[in-house]
């Protein structure tokens, strides 16, 4: 394929895509476009069954496939059915692509800084402060008018991103009828590639949670300025929370639950992020993998279902493709498809002469409204500066101009990687000392102290239950996870052991159908004196049933790691709660119920009694270093009467 192809594409009026992901070439995809309704409708095969390569733009509204809510703008699930896939050298593409700066008019954010700061305050108070979740991403859009031909603008911005951005996972341009999307996404949401030949039909699934944003000072980042960022409690906990959320997804699609490696730095021209890599194996269709992982918590929040509800409450307009994915399905030799799907962030959209650059900030209990406003400015400036729409700072270019124009000219020395600095590397590695070894090591597939037993896990709209399911499997259980709305009374009566899971919301809210049903199920099981374990929200419901008071915490414990005493054993556990059961300081028993509580505050960490046990913390979380042994002890206590 020659460079003239790019000129031909601009003039043809046909749909196409340009993708740079290996640092050396630009892939050129051409084909025809079809819009479909569901992920399962993505046309991966021709009518005769021949595998087809497809690039799909998946909008945020696709979360309705999982039963989640959204502002529905009707953005199409757009599929480029690839008929030709070639590539050209990166330097050649840079010479061919237009470079004239594209003027913008009427530029600015659709929501003022003061209005956005007010939204941040409301989310912290009304959502995180009332137990609706641990973190939420709320976006605002930078918009402007563009008079230039949209394809020319897209090609120009694509060239600018290639030249002035570094560290992107994909740099891309997708042009379809009436729609241009151009961006440099730092984050691979999910990929699935064929596994070893000895395991046909198995894919290696990878997810790449990125969180924490360090905006480089003018002149670039240094080890000294980065150290302060990496030492931030807010930034560290923000990353841990999104890793937990993506492990929920990995646990849903991977038979081995997945394991984490890292952390690493994602160093870009104007921003640096922290990241982990998650890997596991799956036999699912790649479209199903994509559905089960919609969408990244780094651009939505957690727990996912409630995050979508919160987004709908606080964002004023639909998201379009922001926080969705660009999903490339590539045929494999065995007739299946590999999947490579970056998140659609750091992306500019041009429709009907209007430029839109959506950006969001992750809001957590520590968030400062002014700081989150500044983060959205930094992210928007990162895109706008890279495409040349605003003045660029002094950060180094991704591709030195001399190399792009004259291949015989000496290349500039690559910018030093701060991640290679010994102090930075040590500071990053030290984070793992806080984490559960269960998710860092390969997980044993068989055996365990409860081998051969069945367990019903009731999901109360927090997919921490998928991670909990893998821990239970590790302990030997045969695990059946069902949502609260589909669990029947008979299923709860007949199960040998039941684990009631966590969920968002106020445990005192009897008007909530979910809370009311969980109350009924916990009471039914406890009244029958059948063994159970209750976690977080369900622990609070059980505490209320045995006569303990419930109250909101003064400050939510969302993504908080604490060292607590669990019936005489000091345990490091991760907490995601806004409400707590509380007893008078020093109280250790109420009737037959034994209580493990904070000696000063009376906040209840665990309960145990005849046939039951409960825990406020999330033993399945990466923050629970002592999660697995604590889980085993509590289950053993709950099962003790049955074993006897």
Protein described:
By secondary structure, this protein is an alpha+beta fold. The protein has two domains: 4-432, Anthranilate synthase; 440-643, Rossmann fold (3-Layer(aba) Sandwich), CATH 3.40.50.880. Helix content is 29%, strand content 31%. The protein contains 17 helices and 28 strands. The strands form three sheets. The chain has an 18-stranded antiparallel β-sheet that branches. The protein has an eight-stranded mixed β-sheet with strand order 20-19-21-22-28-27-26-25, sandwiched between helices. It has a two-stranded antiparallel ribbon with strand order 23-24. A hairpin with a 2-residue loop joins β17 and β18. The chain is globular, with a radius of gyration of 26 Å. 52% of the residues are buried.
Helix coverage percent: 25-40%
Sheet-strand content, in percent, reads 25-35%
- The number of E-state strands comes to 28
What average pLDDT do the residues reach?
90
Query: Nearest-angstrom radius of gyration?
Result: 26 Å
Tell me, what's the shape?
A: globular
The number of domains is: 2
> Which blocks of ≥5 consecutive residues have pLDDT under 50?
394-413
Question: What's the quaternary structure here?
Answer: single chain
The helix/strand class is: alpha+beta
CATH topology of the largest domain: Anthranilate synthase
So, CATH architecture of the largest domain? 4-Layer Sandwich
What name goes with the CATH superfamily of the largest domain?
Answer: Anthranilate synthase
Amino- and carboxy-terminal Cα gap? 74 Å
